[in-house]
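Researcher: Quick one. two chains, 628 residues in total.
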Amino acid sequence: MDSSVVLKEVELAPPAAPKVGRAKINWRTHFQQHWPLYVMLIPAIVSMILFRFYPMWGILFAFKKYSPVAGFAKSPWVGLKNFSRFFSSDYALPILRNTISIAVGKIVVGQIVAILFALFLNEVRSHFFKRTVQTMTTLAHFLSWIIIGGMMVQILSTKGAVNQIVTSFGLEPIRFLSDPAVFPWTLIGLETWKEFGWGAVIYLAALTNINPELYEAAAVDGADRFQRMRHITLPGIKTLIILMSCLSLGGILSAGFEQVLVLYNPVVYKTGDILDTYIYRVGLVGSGGMPDYSLGTAVGLLQGGVGFVLILVSYWLADKFANYRVF
Amino acid sequence: MIAENSLGDRLFTIFLYLMMALLAFLCVAPFIHVISLSLSSNAAIKMGAVGLWPVDFHTQNYQFVLKEPQFMRSFGVSVVRVVFGVSAMLIMTIMTAYPLSRDSVPMFGRTPFKMIMLFSGMFGGGLIPTYMAMRSLHLTNNFLVLILPGALAVFSVILVMNFFRGIPVELTEAAELDGASHWDILFRIFLPVSLPVLATISLFSAVGHWNSWFDGVIYMDEIRMWPLQSYLYARVTSQMIQKSGTAAGGTAERMGQSFNELTPEGLSTAMILVATIPILLVYPFLQRYFVKGLTLGSVKG
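Model:
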């Protein structure tokens, strides 16, 4: 090798090891050489300030009794009164209960169906068949809840296709979208229907990494299909299952805003109203008058704050149990 | 592979294929049923005679939808939104990911920046403060509100950053020896080898933009400016139909007698299906990037 190249490489070596280089940086020459790195970050910094941090001053609405007539500055401070207004209202308990139970229901049912589906689809030998099934089961994931909701309102109506089948068995039609006792299950069922194929993609991807020799060795030892699924396939995605469970914790206060907003109606508020829809109705739409910005912001802050802590905890758990790091 | 010879195994295989086929059928049957509904006569729909095949085939719903000015306008708004939204996201992602990925170059404030960016992806002001902020930035009733706030997609940045990090250091170092600037390295080395990952984030972002509707509904006062999915929201949900101002019956009468099979349901169904077509068109490409895209779906950046 050319000795001058070697020399240059030696000269370049310190920056390659940041810990060593950090103490000795000459910032003047550093900026002269590396200014583009900083320039490139400007759009992201501006975007974060304008669209992520600037809105945060609005959190102060939560501690004021905001009136659009008086404006922000002249609205009086009220301390935590907006929070106590929410908790002392008749809505607080049902809404929290609905949000958490619908979210947990979606996570549990959705994960179980996705994992079982992946386990069984993994047993299919024909690549063409596998691919076709995957194509058909993941499509709905890429469609909005407007599309899916619009379809389902027709299919699940009392005279819709599903109830035609139900009544043909001599049963009463099920009011999927207007019976408060059924509605949360409709939400969970539709979410699972829409997402299980996509949820299985990550497991199927992980299953391709399992060494085929394990299966052959197990077969030689006389393990049948189910035993192989139970003792090779399932352990192969165990870490991933733990990881997905940990990460899903972060979403426990988000029960699917867009889905509920498209599908719900006042008849099922009792069991179907969740934090997001409540905040939207109270804080932006306003029920029978002006929107209550302050109350909406307070409940939103509660959801955002607790949600943030939950995400941190979920990342911490994911790191602890599955060695997962975002960066 | 392992030979499956026993009777039990064969039965299992048959059962397996049947179950999987049934599941796949359950996933597409609603679409087929709704397509059939949109092509069937009202009489047949009311009798419940429509299953997975149209009865008394007609295409009036579609003819009407394609002549509905607001539908076509909103379709246009959505197309423009996708083009500009994806471009903005792509430029922002590349420019942010590059400096963060160059670990060999020490940088002032890199780690704090990453932490702040991650934080900004996890915690926001919430719905109402964000709405107020957009209003005070004069972004309400402004097309840019559909493009700019979503341009910095944190998880796309992380995905691209990690991909950039995987590019062999030798390539970069050789270029640096030749006197290449950061722009040269980015445009001549990093970008050409990153096309698959850039395609991934672009496709997923395009689908996201096409499917977004809530921002249109809250930030735009006039239906005229709504993207397609926001407009469909107005058509589909009953409480908003007055706001959209065009109940199907009235418009049909206005357009003459030729559309005697129109119903609000038939029309919304036809609209929904037309709005699905663009997704179907990119779906084969999306499928190639499923696994890469997994990390994107988890959090909205």
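Confidence is low (pLDDT under 50) at residues 1-21 of chain A.
Researcher: Thanks, that's what I needed.
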